[in-house]
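REQUEST FORM: STRUCTURE PREDICTION
Request ID: SP-0412
Submitted by: Lab K.M.
Chain count: 1
Length (residues): 320
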Amino acid sequence: MNILIIRRDNIGDLLCTTPLMVGIKEQLKVDRLDVVTNAYVAPVLKGNHFIDTLYVYHKLKHGHTSFFKVIYERLKLIFNLRRHHYDYILAFDARALSLTRFLRKTKVLKPIIDWTNQTEVERAWELGQRMGLKGLPGPLTLPLHLYDSSSDIKNSQTLGIHISARRIKQQYPITAWAILIRTLHDIDPKLTFHIFWSPGDNQNPMHPGDDKKADTLKNTLKNLPIQFISTPTLESLMEGLQRCGSMIMCDGGAMHIAAALNRPIIALFGDSNAKRWRPWGVPYTIMQSETADVKDIEPSKIIEAWLHLVNSISTHKKSI
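STATUS: Completed
RESULT:
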């Protein structure tokens, strides 16, 4: 049996699909499991053992390409995909569905659109259940070549804070981050902080950067035990996350990477669906205001939630 998954969206979406991919490979008699995705998110899959062929294309809006190159890539992609007959094609959006019209296939499966009360991992897993998958989805999976598992320090006295987010209502104000960090330092002077952000300026077409916000924090929080870590690559982000015992971060791709690395998370949600996009497979606490804007979440509430989360984890470990 040959199966093709077409998932063109963001890093978090793709990571939430990895339990399905692993389940297909482990439970079903699959000769081929191929995946189509875009160049920006492809690194979170590249090299994973459960994928036979990873087909990658560029989105015009991400830059680093041209209209004619995009057209050429699409035609080449269709040509390569047509060499295989797929028993199932899993198409996650309308454009993925339109691509299936040009392919040799037996059955096309689309995920449930009105999906609100369970996670995106379970939404993807439901497609596999239609093909015969049993049980529950496993953890999110990252390719081993992206990070060194032997470097997994997980220092409980190191708190990671990721300040970047794409969506406007997911962007926590830099002044609030400064208050939160300074207050936590006052509570526990032994605590060290790793501050992560996407580098570059906020006009970057592939991913808006937060260099200015990071500089503001550097100037505001001088003499505090902080390591500022720009993350131009997924490898640099993962390497930094592996040193942290826990994370405070906004909903986004980095949050799902932290979950894949088994980090406890305080997740700040704005106007996205927290039930659907919550961290999968790790201890977590969701923070979301009635206004659906992260700027309205008080730093004191976040601190209270983080203290409760880390204390509950510590208590659980002592009881084992």
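NOTES: Residues 2-144 form a domain with the Rossmann fold fold (CATH 3.40.50.2000).
Reviewed by: T.R.
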